[in-house]
Give the backbone structure.
Amino acid sequence: MTTSSLRRTLATACLVVVALGFAACSDDDAKSPKTNLTLTVTPAAPGSAPTHVTLTCEPAGGDHPNAEAACAALAAVGGDFDKLPGDPTTACIQVFEPVDASVTGTWQGKQIDWRKAFGNKCELSARTTPVF
């Protein structure tokens, strides 16, 4: 084998390795969720522990109890938690047991840091279901 044919063979092998590396990277990017959120509810009552739930979308997952519906609801409002319609037919009793809801992470690659206070868990659910 001549030096020039050996160089061509090595150059071709290097291009194949580089191409496979890019393909592997793009496959990993396609598999990783575009949305990765941590939803937290913190009761104001002393001694109450916060609860955390993870939500991923595209594909829907995490330990959220209804990830598919939560992702669909967020997609419908472009990831704007203040625009979630919730369930306006929910009737909550007027008991003041405040909770703070927060979301951190990424929605379709955009950083999210959302926080809001609610009068009680029922109010939180009524305004943000099926996400919270």
Residues 3-7, 9-27 have pLDDT under 50 and may be disordered. The helical segments are 3-31, 67-76, 121-128.
